[in-house]
Design brief:
The protein is of the alpha/beta class and 211 residues long. The protein has one domain: P-loop containing nucleotide triphosphate hydrolases (Rossmann fold, 3-Layer(aba) Sandwich), CATH 3.40.50. Helix content is 54%, strand content 13%. Helix 2 runs antiparallel to helix 3. The radius of gyration is 16 Å and the shape is globular.
Length: 211
Amino acid sequence: MKRGLFIVLEGGEGSGKSSVVSWLKDELPKNDFLFTREPGGVENAEEIREVVLKNRQEQLNTFTQILLFEAARHEHVSKKIIPALEAGRHVVCDRFSSSTYAYQIIAGAGAEYEKLFLEIDRTARNGLEPDLTVFLDVDPAVGLQRKVSSHDPLDVFDQQDISFHEKVREGIKSYLQKRNHTIIDAGKAQNEVREAIKEAVLHYTENHEGQ
């Protein structure tokens, strides 16, 4: 059986990733595509998600965040992503290692943990690399305004200042530099962004199946 392809959607707050994923679920063949998210995707990882995103008076330090994200990733990759890929399904994941690098190492002032992060992360994802990352790029100020206007609950990262989110944007770009990715201007109208992402995903899967 041909192995499926692993595609990651990345972006800062308010870039529209989650709404795009919901839309794509109805647009792409259900038998061919599996949609999931990080942190989360499986029960144990979803429980860790609640811990790391919770607003609390005393925030978790960066090192603790990294360990929790990687624990969730290992559960997710080993129990859901790899089995789906081996069954021949394409997996589309909302966030992956590039987010941890951007949020915790770059924006979270965790540069001293970068080497450790790279080692733990490789182990946590069993060496799995995204075949393609689609980066929804939007000005952090625009993204945060969208987030606030949506009236959705704000998690601990949503509430960081603008400089934090600017660093997240640059951190994702830096991480993706030497990895296969495509950039979508998420500042455009929602329907344009959605169609551009759908086209990118279909173009990639149709041209790389079985390779």
